[in-house]
């Protein structure tokens, strides 16, 4: 029982030491940087012909034209 009472203050004393805290921070920074470098990949270059800001050309089909003529006929009938 006496060993346990002296064990916890010793552990807390070690964990509160500035050298232990600085070592842990440095360790985590190195691990995070290594993980970033290991998983880093460049994005593939975009082709100049592919411009996402340009709208895709509208393809006209018979259904779209038929829908426009129906609404035009309804307006004239009223």
Give the biggest beta sheet. none
The percent of residues in helical segments reads 55-70%
- Span from first to last CA? 98 Å
Rg value:
35 Å
Structure overview:
- Helices cover 67% and strands 0% of the residues.
- With 78 residues, it is mostly helical.
- The protein is elongated, with a radius of gyration of 35 Å.
Q: How is the topology of this model organized?
A:
Elements: H1 2-15, H2 18-39, H3 62-77
Using brief descriptors, characterize the structure shown.
single chain, 78 residues, 3 helices, mainly alpha, 67% helix
Question: What is this structure, in a nutshell?
Answer:
This protein has 78 residues and is mostly helical. It has three helices and no strands.
């Amino acid at each position: 029982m006496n060993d346990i009472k002296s064990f916890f203050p010793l552990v807390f004393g070690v964990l509160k030491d500035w050298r232990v805290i600085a070592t842990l921070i440095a360790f985590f920074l190195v691990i995070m940087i290594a993980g970033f470098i290991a998983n880093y990949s460049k994005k593939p270059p975009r082709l100049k012909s592919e411009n996402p800001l340009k709208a895709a050309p509208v393809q006209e089909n018979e259904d779209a034209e038929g829908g426009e003529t129906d609404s035009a006929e309804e307006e004239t009938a009223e």
